[in-house]
Amino acid sequence: MPQLTDAQLDKASLRTLALARRAALDPAARAEAAEAAAANAMEWLGGVADEVVSVFSPIGGEIATDPLVRRLREAGARVALPIVLEAGKPLLFRLWEPGTELEPSLGPGRFSIPAPPESAPAVSPDVLVVPLAGFDARGNRLGYGAGFYDRTLSLLRRAKRIEALGYAFAVQQLAAVPAEPHDERLDAIATDAGIVRPAED
């Protein structure tokens, strides 16, 4: 029986494939990749002084964001983190001041995600650094199925100009991710191998 290619798989199968590739990376490769992806992300972002940049607290096997946070702060950005309010709702963003200890917050499913305390100011990001399970060269993002970032990006893009930067290991790139009407494309994806700039249709 012939094997299916990436482009012939459904979202669930693609997610399994991309996450398996991610899980196969050893700790040394992960650390090196996180530093490289952070450098690539900063090159793509350019000047970020006084901009609000939302990053994410990695869960599971997601790429580490500490190297990126360090560079963002050095460049004068104001760093924020997303907060899950409830299923079916867009994300809220709170400012993460240097030195502020993160607290466990409700995440999707069984996850608890580190987030700024409730006393931290809510902000509207200028740049959204987005986690993902997989992505393709057209900027299609394969998430984890809850739709938080699609809803949030749709809302933010109607209100203001915002840049959405996927952030992942290069091994998570797929030949094609099926796109549905509600899916929000990324403006670019920063990986350890460089920046993926979505191809035009």
Automatic annotation (TrEMBL):
Task: Give the Enzyme Commission number.
Answer: 6.3.3.2
Instruction: Please name the GO terms that the record assigns under molecular function.
Output: 5-formyltetrahydrofolate cyclo-ligase activity; ATP binding; metal ion binding
Residues engaged in binding substrate: 62
Q: Which GO terms describe its biological process?
A: folic acid-containing compound biosynthetic process; tetrahydrofolate interconversion
List the catalysed reactions.
(6S)-5-formyl-5,6,7,8-tetrahydrofolate + ATP = (6R)-5,10-methenyltetrahydrofolate + ADP + phosphate
Q: Which cofactor does it need?
A: Mg(2+)
InterPro entries attached here? FTHF_cligase, FTHF_cligase-like_sf, NagB/RpiA_transferase-like
SUPFAM superfamilies assigned: NagB/RpiA/CoA transferase-like (SSF100950)
Statement: the UniProt record of this protein carries the keyword Ribosomal protein: no
Keyword ATP-binding: yes or no? yes
Q: Which residues bind ATP?
A: 11-15, 141-149
**Which top-level group of life is the source organism from?**
Bacteria
Instruction: Tell me which UniProt keywords the record has, alphabetically.
Output: ATP-binding, Ligase, Magnesium, Metal-binding, Nucleotide-binding
Give the family this protein belongs to, as stated in its UniProt record.
Answer: Belongs to the 5-formyltetrahydrofolate cyclo-ligase family.
Q: What is the designated name of this protein? A: 5-formyltetrahydrofolate cyclo-ligase
Q: What species is this protein from? A: Ancylobacter rudongensis
